[in-house]
């Protein structure tokens, strides 16, 4: 790896840590979970969902490599925490749209983003019959925080050329890049647990 690429990777890692320091997870948790906000644990947020484990979120954000100006889709926005972190990473000039299948969590996530003063991100209800949000595609980056049985082509179709998707598939994180119309899929060492990615009309 050349010095330029090494420097960029170091600064990307530093930006993820800066975002995770700046965006307080506590503001995205229900009161009964506040005491665990600093713990490296997935925490219950209601509707059978969790706010993902911080070390897993850090890993996924690092792999995603979102940069200022990017257009980002956050699938499974839950509490809105990852949406807010992504908004921080793509500022200035970028934006984030989160989609969530549980209507109660859409409301919770919206309230959390508002309270956090996060204006370059918004949340939408997942639309029955669609995965992601094709109407605003293409996206430079797509983060999926729910586990798929296989990578949905509906999501890779929403990637811009030069774009990247990070998704857990059967417990393994996959990083999928679109370049010149080709998809390159690599899996990353380690196993991770997520709630299942539901078909949007489940
Ligand atoms: C691990 S949880 C939430 C993580 C979230 N990013 C956070 O920081 O709180 C994953 C979420 O994915 C949602 N989900 C599952 N399938 C979905 C789908 N097809 N479209 C949108 N959201 C989905 C679940 O309802 C759940 O809230």
Q: Layout of SSEs?
A:
Layout: H1 3-22, E1 43-46, E2 49-51, H2 54-64, E3 71-75, H3 81-90, E4 95-100, H4 103-115, E5 121-125, E6 139-144, H5 153-156, E7 159-169, E8 172-179, E9 182-187
Parallel strand pairs: 3-4, 3-6, 4-5, 6-7
Antiparallel strand pairs: 1-2, 7-8, 8-9
Helix pairs in contact: 1-2, 1-3
S-adenosylmethionine is lined by residues 45, 49-52, 75-79, 81-82, 99-102, 105, 126, 131, 145-146, 194-195, 197-198, 200.
Structure notes:
This protein is α/β, with parallel strands linked by helices and 202 residues long. The chain has one domain: Vaccinia Virus protein VP39 (Rossmann fold). It has five helices and nine strands, in the order H-E-E-H-E-H-E-H-E-E-H-E-E-E. It has helices at residues 3-22, 54-64, 81-90, 103-115, 153-156; strands spanning 43-46, 49-51, 71-75, 95-100, 121-125, 139-144, 159-169, 172-179, 182-187. A hairpin with a 2-residue loop joins strand 7 (159-169) and strand 8 (172-179). The protein starts with a helix and ends in a 15-residue tail after the last strand. Bound molecules: S-adenosylmethionine (SAM). S-adenosylmethionine is lined by residues 45, 49-52, 75-79, 81-82, 99-102, 105, 126, 131, 145-146, 194-195, 197-198, 200.
């Amino acid at each position: 790896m050349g010095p330029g690429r090494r420097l960029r990777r170091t600064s990307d890692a530093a930006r993820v840590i800066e975002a995770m320091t700046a965006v307080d997870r506590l503001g995205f948790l229900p009161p009964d979970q506040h005491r665990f906000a600093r713990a490296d644990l997935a925490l219950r947020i209601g509707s059978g969902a969790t706010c993902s484990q911080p070390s897993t979120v850090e890993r996924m954000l690092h792999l995603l490599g979102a940069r200022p100006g990017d257009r980002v889709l956050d699938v499974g926005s839950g509490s809105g925490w990852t949406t807010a972190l992504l908004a921080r990473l793509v500022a200035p000039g970028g934006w984030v749209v989160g989609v969530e299948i549980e209507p109660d969590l859409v409301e919770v996530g919206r309230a959390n983003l508002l309270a956090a003063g996060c204006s370059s991100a918004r949340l939408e209800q997942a639309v029955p019959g669609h995965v992601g949000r094709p109407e605003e595609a293409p996206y430079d980056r797509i983060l999926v925080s729910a586990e798929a049985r296989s990578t949905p082509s509906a999501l890779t179709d929403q990637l811009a050329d030069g774009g990247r998707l990070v998704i857990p598939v059967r417990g393994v994180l996959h990083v999928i890049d679109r370049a010149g119309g080709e998809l390159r899929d690599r899996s990353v060492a380690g196993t991770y647990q997520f709630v299942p990615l539901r078909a949007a009309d489940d």
